[in-house]
Design a protein that fits this description.
TIM Barrel; 8-stranded parallel β-barrel
């Protein structure tokens, strides 16, 4: 059994870490560099930094923030937000990011995934998908979850894999911030239809939810934000809990 990864996610707006519920009601959660360094010390396997204001306010993810983060942590991290071209990615990787995440820009221009994968390798490219269940279908949304698109979750994830994405980061907008558990049914369907890793996002509220994401949803990694940011769950305790239940995690 491959090692399951625990990934804190830091949504960044105007240089601060923020967290909302169902993609709204945003509140401050601290300094992203300090939080990232603390999660690395606690034993997080990776980190994700998403500039959630980038696509809304047409701002670019700042390479100097990435550089600052890279100086303070020793684990892989992914950066996303406002990436629209090959030219946007090189400065982020040069500043110390290990991977980049694309979302709205890839929905608008799917060929972007091909271009990024060709330029940097699929291992660097994470396709982030925000989706909500509407009329019994999982509909992909863009612009920080504000705009429904014409794409469906499962076909878009498959297309992303075929175009060269190395991982899928699936966030259930219906579950985001609710602390009611991950969207395990679509996670399992993604796992069964793809050959690349799937990261579960949206809904973590207690340690048992991670067990469900790994065993029921078949996720390769589980991502969470507020439960880590506000100290509700500590990563070392979570990993001990998973280890005791025979989930293979890096201790």
């Amino acid at each position: 059994m491959l090692t399951k990864r625990i990934i804190p996610c830091l949504d960044i707006k105007d240089g601060r870490t923020v967290k909302g519920v169902n993609f709204i009601n945003i509140r401050d959660a601290g300094d992203p560099v300090e939080l990232g360094a603390e999660y690395a010390r606690q034993g997080a396997d990776e980190l994700v930094f998403l500039d959630i204001s980038a696509t809304n306010e047409e701002r670019k993810t700042l390479a100097d923030l990435v550089r600052d983060i890279a100086r303070h942590i020793n684990i892989p991290f992914t950066v996303g937000g406002g990436i629209t071209s090959v030219g946007d990615v090189a400065p982020l990787l040069e500043a110390g990011a290990d991977k980049v995440s694309v979302n709205s820009s890839a929905v608008k221009n799917p060929a972007l995934i091909d271009e990024l994968s060709k330029a940097f390798g699929s291992q660097c490219i994470v396709l982030a998908i925000d989706a909500r269940k509407m009329e019994n279908q999982w509909i992909v949304h863009t612009h920080g979850g504000k705009k429904p698109s014409d794409k469906k979750l499962f076909s878009w994830a498959k297309e992303g894999q075929e175009r060269g994405a190395g991982e899928i980061l699936f966030t259930s907008m219906d579950h985001d911030g609710t602390k009611m558990g991950f969207a395990n049914d679509p996670l399992e369907k993604l796992h069964n239809s793809l050959s690349i890793p799937v990261i579960a996002s949206g809904g973590a509220g207690e340690m048992g939810h991670f067990i469900d994401a790994f065993l029921i949803g078949k996720a390769d990694a589980a991502l969470a934000a507020s439960i880590f940011h506000f100290g509700e769950i500590k990563i070392p305790e979570l990993k001990q809990y998973l280890h005791r239940r025979n989930i293979n995690v890096r201790m």
